[in-house]
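In response to a reviewer's request, we include the raw inputs and outputs for one of the modeled complexes. The two entities were modeled together in a single run.
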Amino acid sequence: MATAAASSSSRWAPKMGVFTKQFGHYLLRYATWLPPFIWFNSYVAEVTLINGPSMYPFFNAHYNERLGRDWCLVWKMGVRERLRRGEVITFRSPTDPDKVVVKRVVGIEGDRIIPKAVRVMGEGGPGRKVLYPVGMVVPEGHVWVEGDNADKSRDSNYYGPVSAGLVTGRVAYVLRGWRLVRVVPEVVGRR
Amino acid sequence: PLRLLLTSLKLLALFHLLWEYLLSLAPAQGPSMLATYPVTGTWLLTSRLHRLGRSLSVGDTVTFTIPERPNSIGIKRVIGLPGDYVLIGTPGEFWHSGADPAADDALMLQVPEGHAYLVGDNLSVSRDSRLFGPVPLALIRGKVIASMHPSFTRGPFAEFQWVQNPMRRDEPPSKEEVLNARLGR
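The model returned the following structure tokens for the whole complex.
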């Protein structure tokens, strides 16, 4: 017994030293993969969740039924230069620089947009001053974004055209059920 | 071979991350900040820790993506933070000739939440927020913390100086100052 215990303890001590050395070695090796991983997530593609009901029913179609949110793949390379109508993009909110917002591009630079307030209320109702009765033109370098769920969406109808410099990526794929659905530019039931 | 390639790719990724999130150094040109920086030849060291408008104060010089031209980067001074009241025009210049000068000169705007009002030092030739309106804070890339004039004769760090914020107040205004300001108006 005594000899067995002594031999096991003497076997333990060297193993501990070897273990920490190996652990440190592997930790360092895998830690050096962190910058490329972060770089990839920031500049190539990222897997993320969609929060909020502003793109219902395109995203989070079960927003009122379950707590689960949609997973999606956001493609980040070369998005700013190739913005097209109908794409779903991610961008930093003009009202809160720490928040990333997901909306659909409805107008690109040069398009004439009639904001929702005018669309819904016609002339704005009696006594209400309407700022853009004939619509406004989206300025150069900007896009007009709107959420698919018109009521619950804080979008360009609230803060105006969004500069393309704020765009961080484009939602390329969304996981619906067990299928990976490619997100294609489409204009959702509009003019 | 492969390991060399992987290591250099990792180093590139690390360097890019440091450039985007920590510090970057780049040349600057243009006459819009003539009072502070010459037209060409200045290299500015920007702290990327202040990107997205974090911990900015009025008077800081910042680099930002120009709203109308997302491929260009501009350098201007922060004049207004969210909630501040700023002058839209330029003191002494009038947009509508013949109109009431006092009214034109005194048009003010409250900077909306999440935006900043950026104005260049050389007011007459600076295209800034007086032209394109308040800039979303998310477009701000960093704060200029140092400037230098590298030259072949004087070395890369010639005339290196840390940038001071000329508008900074270290203590809030005293009660007398606030009362005087209100009564004097």
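As requested, we also summarize the result in words. Chain A touches chain B through 27 residues (CB under 8 Å). The CA atoms of residues 109 and 140 of chain A lie 5 Å apart.
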